[in-house]
C-alpha cells in the first residue's frame, strides 16, 4: 500500500521564513531530506552482520582513543562537570550503543555501581581467545568515585561451554560466537545490608546452535563477595522465535527483562504477535537463577501489515508490585502509515499478571475533530496542522485555514523511549519524537519504506499516567539540536544519527525523577566537523514528585558534560535506572559515555574497540526551590474500562503445545481470589493453585514442567466467572 505524494514534495520540503521554525533556528529555510526509520531489530541484525564480517580481523596497532590524545575543555565551555573514570573496553561499538538496553546499575543503599559490557582487548579471551564472547562487569562500591573501580569482574557469561558444536557452521566455524548486546543489573535481596550478598546478573543474545540464528538467551550471575563463583546458563529457542532482550529492571524480589518476539526465518526482521516479560528470580540457597515468562499479545490497529515493534521499556514502583511496560510500535490506523506510537501495559501484583497493551494517541486521523488538549500537545512540537503554499513552503495552519487550503495533520514518529515509576505509582516516560510526515502527502510503504524528517525537529516528550485505563498526559521537555555520530567511515552505512538515547532514572523512594539524553550544544560551542561527528553531551532535566499527579520541573535543561567536552569524546551513553544517594540529601546520576578508537581499516568496524568512561559527580538537587516549573501536561487519552457482561471467561494459553511453560490470557469483569485447576484427559485433578488477580484483560505465566507429556484441561474460577482451555504438553 502506498500513500499519495503531494505535488512539489519530490524535490524537497521547505520551511517558510514566515512560517515554521525547526531545530537549527527560527526562520531558517533549506532542503530537508528524509531518513529511513530503522527499527531496533533491524539495527541489531545489521550490526550482527557487520561483526560477522569482521571475525578474525585484528587491529595492526593498539588503538588510540580520543580521550587520551585530546585534552582541555571546549573554548566556549563555561562550567566543568565532574570526573571521568576510565572503565574497561568492549571489542566494538555494538556492545552498548543499541537503544533499549540497560548496562549500568546501582544499589543506592549500598553506594554500589556496576557497568556491564562485553570483553575488551585487555580482558582474558578464554578458550576461544575471543574476549568479545564474554560478559564482564566493572564494579565500584564507593558511589562511582574515581580510582575505586574494580575492572573486568567475571566474566559472568562466556561461550567456552558451547564451542565445537557440529550443528553450527554457517558463521565461519564450529563456534557460536556469543555473546552480543548484553545488559545487566545488580540484584540486592530484600533486607540485605552487605555488599557481598549483592548479585550481578546479566543476560545476552547468543547463538545456541539449534537453528543457525541468534536464537539463544545467555544468562550469567555472580555474588559480589570476593572469590564467588560465576555461573551461567544457556536457553535455546524453538524456531522461529529469537531473542532480543531489552530494558532490564530490578525489584526487591526479582529482575525483569522484556523482549519483542521476532521471526528471522525469512532473512528479514518479522515479528510475532507477542511481547515477552521475563522474570528472573535468584535463589540464594542454591545460588541459582530461575526464569518465568509472561507473553503479552500485541496487535496494532489497521491490521493490513505485519506487526512492527521498535523498542520496549519496563519499570516498577518502590513497592515492587505496581509496574508498567511501554512499547514503541507501528500503528496503521492513521492517514500516514509512518507512525510509531506508545502502547502501555500495567501489573499490580509484582509481574504475575499484565494487562493488554493499550495504544496512546499522539497522531490524528483524517477527519478527526479539533481536540484542545491533543492539538496543544502537538503544537508544542513542529505544529498540529500545516499547509503548503504555491512554492511548497510549509506553513503552520489552523482549522480555519481549511476554507482556503488543503490542511494536513503533522505525523510524529516515536524513535525511542524509557520509563520509571514514582512513589505514587505514576509512570514517567521520556520519548524521543520526530516528524514523520504530513497526513496523506508523503510516499511511504510499510514497513520497509517508513521515513522521518529530523530536519523538521526532534523533541523530547514527557508522558505520565498511573493507569492504562485512566488519563494519560504529555508535556514537552525540550527540542533537540540534533545528534550525529560515526565510527569508521562516517560517509558509509555505519553511522548513527538522531538517536539521542532518552533515558530516565528515579530516586529509590520515587520522590525525584531525572530525565537524561545526549545532544549537541551547537549554540554554545559549534563542533560539527567534516565527518559529521557532532560530539554529543549529556543533558538532564529533573522532576520533583509533590503529590499524586502533581509534579515540578527544574528551571531548565542542563548540559552536564560541557566543561569536559573534547571533540570526539562522547558517543552516546547509558544512565542507571536509579539515582545514587549523594551529599546533603541530594542525589547523583550514574552515567557512562563511550568513545571510539581511531578507525583502523584493517580491523573493520565490527572489531573496532570502544572505551567506556563513567561520568561522576552529576548532582541532582532536591530542595523545593530547585523545582520552580509546574508540570501541566495535555491529555493524550482517557480510557474507560469496558465491562464484560457475561460470566464466561475467554481463556487461552500460549504457546500451545508447550514443554510446560505457558502464558494464560483472560479477561475478568471483577478481580479477586482466582483458582486454577488442571485436569488430565481422564478427568483427574493433577494441579491446583490460587492467586489474587486484578480485573481487566490480563496475561499470567503458568509452569507445568512437572506434568508428563499429554493432553490436559485448565479450569479457572474467580467468583462466578469461569473459563476452560485444553492444552498439550509435548
Question: Largest beta sheet, briefly?
Answer: 8 strands, mixed
What oligomeric state do the depicted chains represent?
Answer: single chain
Which residue ranges are poorly predicted, with pLDDT under 50 across at least 5 consecutive positions?
Answer: 1-31, 67-80, 162-176, 488-494, 641-646
- Order of adjacent strands in the largest pleated sheet: 1-23-22-24-25-27-28-41
Envelope shape: globular
Helix percentage: under 10%
Q: Mean pLDDT, rounded to whole units?
A: 78
> Helix/strand-derived class?
mainly beta
Rounded to the nearest angstrom, the distance between the terminal CA atoms is: 41 Å
Number of strands: 48
Strand-residue proportion? 35-45%
Report the total helices: 3
Roughly how many Å is the radius of gyration? 25 Å
Can you walk me through this structure?
- This protein is mainly β and 730 residues long.
- Among the domains are: 40-59 and 73-297 and 561-614, no CATH class; 644-729, Sandwich (Immunoglobulin-like), CATH 2.60.40.
- 4% of the residues lie in helices and 42% in strands.
- The chain has an 8-stranded mixed sheet with strand order 1-23-22-24-25-27-28-41, with helices on one face. Strands 31, 32, 33, 34, 35 and 40 form a 6-stranded antiparallel sheet that branches. Strands 3, 36, 37, 38 and 39 form a 5-stranded antiparallel sheet that branches.
- β13 (246-250) and β14 (255-263) form a beta hairpin.
- The longest helix is centred in the N-terminal third of the chain and has 14 residues, at 40-53.
- It is globular and about 75 Å long.
- The relative contact order is 0.14.
- Residues 1-31, 67-80, 162-176, 488-494 and 641-646 have low confidence and may be disordered.
Amino acid at each position: 500500500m502506498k500513500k499519495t505524494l503531494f505535488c512539489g514534495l519530490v524535490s524537497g520540503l521547505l520551511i517558510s521564513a514566515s512560517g515554521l521554525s525547526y531545530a537549527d533556528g527560527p526562520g531558517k529555510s533549506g532542503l530537508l531530506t528524509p531518513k529511513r526509520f530503522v527499527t531496533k531489530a533491524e539495527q541489531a541484525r545489521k550490526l550482527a552482520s557487520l561483526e560477522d564480517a569482521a571475525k578474525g580481523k585484528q587491529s595492526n596497532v593498539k588503538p588510540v582513543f580520543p580521550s587520551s590524545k585530546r585534552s582541555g575543555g571546549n573554548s566556549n565551555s563555561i562550567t566543568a562537570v565532574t570526573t571521568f573514570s576510565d572503565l574497561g573496553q568492549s571489542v566494538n561499538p555494538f556492545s552498548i550503543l543499541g537503544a533499549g538496553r540497560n548496562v549500568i546499575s546501582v544499589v543506592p543503599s549500598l553506594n554500589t555501581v556496576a557497568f556491564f559490557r562485553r570483553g575488551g582487548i585487555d580482558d582474558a579471551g578464554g578458550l576461544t581467545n575471543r574476549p568479545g564472547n564474554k560478559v564482564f562487569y566493572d564494579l565500584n562500591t564507593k558511589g562511582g568515585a574515581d580510582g575505586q573501580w574494580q575492572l573486568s569482574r567475571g566474566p559472568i557469561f562466556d561461550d567456552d561451554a558451547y564451542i565445537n558444536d557440529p550443528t553450527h557452521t554457517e558463521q565461519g566455524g564450529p563456534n557460536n560466537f556469543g555473546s552480543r548486546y548484553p545488559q545487566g543489573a545488580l540484584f540486592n535481596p530484600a533486607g540485605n545490608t552487605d555488599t557481598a550478598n549483592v548479585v550481578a546478573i546479566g543476560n545476552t543474545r547468543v547463538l545456541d546452535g539449534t537453528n543457525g540464528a541468534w536464537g539463544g538467551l545467555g544468562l550469567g550471575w555472580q555474588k559480589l563477595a570476593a572469590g564467588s563463583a560465576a555461573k551461567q546458563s544457556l536457553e535455546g529457542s524453538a524456531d522461529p522465535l529469537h531473542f532480543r532482550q531489552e530494558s532490564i529492571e530490578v525489584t526487591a524480589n526479582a529482575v525483569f527483562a522484556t523482549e519483542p518476539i521476532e521471526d528471522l526465518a525469512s532473512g528479514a526482521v518479522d515479528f510475532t504477535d507477542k511481547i515477552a516479560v521475563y522474570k528472573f528470580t535468584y535463589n540464594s540457597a542454591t545460588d541459582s537463577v530461575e526464569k518465568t515468562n509472561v507473553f503479552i499479545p500485541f496487535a496494532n490497529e489497521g491490521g493490513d501489515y505485519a506487526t512492527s515493534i521498535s523498542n520496549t521499556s519496563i519499570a516498577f514502583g518502590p513497592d515492587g508490585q505496581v509496574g508498567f511496560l511501554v512499547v514503541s510500535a507501528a500503528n496503521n490506523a492513521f492517514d500516514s502509515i509512518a507512525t510509531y506510537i506508545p502502547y502501555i501495559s500495567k501489573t499490580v501484583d509484582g509481574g504475575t499478571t499484565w494487562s493488554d497493551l493499550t495504544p496512546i494517541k499522539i497522531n490524528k486521523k483524517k477527519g478527526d475533530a479539533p481536540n484542545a488538549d491533543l492539538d496543544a500537545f502537538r503544537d508544542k512540537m513542529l505544529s498540529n496542522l500545516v499547509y503548503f503554499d504555491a512554492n511548497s513552503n510549509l506553513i503552520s495552519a489552523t482549522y480555519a485555514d481549511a476554507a482556503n487550503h488543503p490542511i494536513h495533520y503533522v505525523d510524529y514518529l516515536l524513535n525511542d523511549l524509557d520509563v520509571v515509576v514514582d512513589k505514587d505509582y505514576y509512570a514517567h516516560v521520556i520519548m524521543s519524537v520526530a516528524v514523520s510526515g504530513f497526513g496523506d502527502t508523503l510516499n511511504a510503504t510499510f514497513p520497509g519504506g517508513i521515513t522521518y524528517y529530523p530536519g523538521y525537529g526532534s523533541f523530547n516528550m514527557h508522558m505520565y499516567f498511573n493507569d492504562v485505563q485512566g488519563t494519560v498526559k504529555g508535556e514537552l521537555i525540550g527540542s533537540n539540536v540534533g545528534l550525529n555520530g560515526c565510527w569508521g567511515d562516517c560517509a558509509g552505512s555505519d553511522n548513527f544519527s538522531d538517536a539521542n538515547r532518552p533515558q530516565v532514572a528515579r530516586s529509590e523512594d520515587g520522590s525525584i525523577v531525572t530525565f537524561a539524553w545526549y545532544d549537541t550544544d551547537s549554540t554554545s560551542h559549534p563542533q560539527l566537523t567534516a565527518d559529521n561527528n557532532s560530539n554529543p553531551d549529556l543533558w538532564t532535566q529533573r522532576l520533583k514528585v509533590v503529590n499524586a499527579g502533581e509534579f515540578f520541573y527544574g528551571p531548565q535543561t542542563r548540559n552536564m558534560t560541557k566543561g569536559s567536552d573534547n571533540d570526539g569524546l562522547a558517543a552516546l551513553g547509558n544512565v542507571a535506572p536509579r539515582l545514587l544517594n549523594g551529599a546533603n540529601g541530594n542525589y547523583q546520576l550514574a552515567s557512562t559515555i563511550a568513545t571510539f578508537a581511531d578507525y583502523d581499516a584493517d580491523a573493520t568496524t565490527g572489531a573496532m574497540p570502544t572505551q567506556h568512561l563513567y561520568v561522576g559527580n552529576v548532582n541532582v538537587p532536591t530542595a523545593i526551590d530547585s523545582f520552580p516549573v509546574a508540570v501541566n501536561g495535555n491529555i493524550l487519552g482517557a480510557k474507560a474500562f469496558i465491562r464484560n457482561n457475561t460470566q464466561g471467561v475467554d481463556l487461552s494459553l500460549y504457546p500451545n503445545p508447550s514443554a510446560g511453560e505457558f502464558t494464560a490470557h483472560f479477561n475478568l469483569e471483577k478481580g479477586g481470589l482466582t483458582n486454577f485447576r488442571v485436569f488430565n484427559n481422564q478427568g483427574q485433578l493433577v494441579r491446583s493453585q490460587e492467586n489474587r488477580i486484578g480485573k481487566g484483560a490480563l496475561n499470567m505465566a503458568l509452569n507445568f514442567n512437572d506434568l508428563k507429556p499429554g493432553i490436559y484441561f485448565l479450569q479457572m474460577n474467580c467468583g462466578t466467572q469461569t473459563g476452560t482451555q485444553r492444552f498439550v504438553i509435548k
